[in-house]
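Please, why this fold?
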Amino acid sequence: MKKLWITLACLVVIIIGLDRVGVVVTNLALEGALRDKLLLQSKPKVRVHGIPFLTQVLGGKYNDIEVDASGLQAQKMHNLSVKVKLRGVHVSITDLGKWDFSTIPIDHTTAEITVPYNSLEAASGIDGITLKADGNQLDFTAPLSAAGTTIDVTGKAHPSISHGALLLNPSDVTAAGTQIPAEEVAAFNAPISIADLPFGLKLTGVHVTSDGLLGDANVDDVVIRDGKLVSR
């Protein structure tokens, strides 16, 4: 009986070991696949969750995968970082064994995209603007030309998403303590393009953080194709 328990214990250790080895191998495989299929310059960090793991391998469906990628670009915005959560990633054991990731169907995707403020400043098209987090809003300073002179104005910005573009929504704009009429700062609320985001994601909302503007995105029933997440 003692030998039986020792044998069973050894089998459990072996199975757990194989399970963890499977996680490492799959992480490496998916890192390479996602880099290639999503046209990234470097490998993203991939973490495959779930215990036991081998049941996911055998079933060809991974329930919880996290992907972190940085140094990404989208039009005039640069050095973006993305945290993506994938739910229901379909990779058959045959494709995994052959290292074949020609298509990767995904049931549900949520993502957070961080845009550094210096990148947002460049994308705004407003020369000389500076943005800084202040709680759940932004402080901004920018030069404003009027009557042949240029003055520095300051104000608050309340970023939002509207019709697929980003708006700063300025308020309390002043110069030397004097309130500036809204029509004089209309350029500060020109829509900022947020098209061509990494993975083809579409923002549904934004939040102010100390590291940059944080955008939320989610999409269901997609497949990785031509560097983006597209509808199945």
About this structure: Confidence is low (pLDDT under 50) at residues 1-22. The radius of gyration is 24 Å. The chain has two domains: 2-112, 118-196. Residues 2-37 form the longest helix (36 residues).
